[in-house]
Amino acid sequence: MKSYIKTLKSDVDVNKGFTLIEVLVAAAIMSIVVALVGIAFVGILKQNRKAEFNSERRTNLNRALDYIANEVRMATTVAIPTASPTTTISSGTGVLRLKVPVPNPASGSVYNSRLYTVVYYISNSWTGWDSPNSIWRYSNVPNPVPIRSAPPLVTPTPNSVTTVPSPSPTSATTFDHNFLVDGIKTPATLPSCSTGLIGDGGFYACISTDGKQVDLYLYGKLSNNTNETETMEVKTTVFTRSSV
Fold first, then answer.
1. Enclosing domain of residue 216
2. Residue 191 DSSP symbol
3. For each successive 10 residues of the chain (244 residues), what is the average pLDDT?
4. Is 119 within the bounds of a domain?
5. Cis omega (within 30 of 0) on the bond before 146?
6. In the prediction, which pLDDT does 142 show?
């Protein structure tokens, strides 16, 4: 019996360690597990950043769309710009040209003969703005529009809404051109329009023949990856409300 107990104790040696092969196998398995966990963690972070970027993109697109739509509602008519506002940018393509009446706070209505011009256009993004394109707003009066309780009211009065604004966008001042939103990109498939689609580079409009209705389309690029081909669309249909 004593001999058996002694043999049993010798088999359970508390000081016995792992062999080199066991250590190497354990280290290899641990390295694989850590690598997989790290890859998954980095992937989750990238997806979260992409989701945050796309959420911010949609918010900015909707804000820009609401801003344009609100000004369209104030206009008397909407037309196609006949001149490209290119003074403060390298290039630009006009998409919308609005003729907007000036408010008359004295009567609670508007001045029938006092109209100002607004042109929305798309251009290549400047350095520092998100590429490839940006939407800009041109007006021949400061924004917000200066109003007085009674005439005289110094406000430019454009000619026909189908002609070049007066003053022309080529005679820019400090208040003529205002940045609206960047990260605008041409979609893979353009929207359809029975009256002829207007616009370029991710900003489009479909204007009715009477100039009282416009379908607006804005397309922003998804994620900040320059190789991303998919775009995000926001759109709305707006009617002019002014009867001047």
1. 45-239
2. P
3. 54 64 87 88 82 88 96 89 60 85 59 73 88 88 58 42 39 64 94 93 94 95 71 94 66
4. yes
5. no
6. 67
Q: Is the pTM of this model over 0.90?
A: no
Distance CA 223, CA 52 (A): 9
Alpha helices in 16-101 (DSSP H): 20-74
Q: Provide the number of structural domains found in the chain.
A: 1
Task: Please indicate, yes or no, if residue 166 is contained in any of the structural domains.
Answer: yes
Phi, psi of 219 (to 5 degrees): -125, 120
Token pair of 207 as six digits: 């204007």
Rounded CA separation 60/122 (Å): 16
Which helix (H) or strand (E) segment is 3 a member of? helix 2-11
Query: What pLDDT does 143 receive?
Result: 64
Tokens 């759109």 belong to which residue? 235
37 in a structural domain: no
> How far from chain centre, in Å, is Cα 218?
7
- Name the helix (H) or strand (E) containing 217: strand 213-221
Residue 105, domain member (yes or no): yes
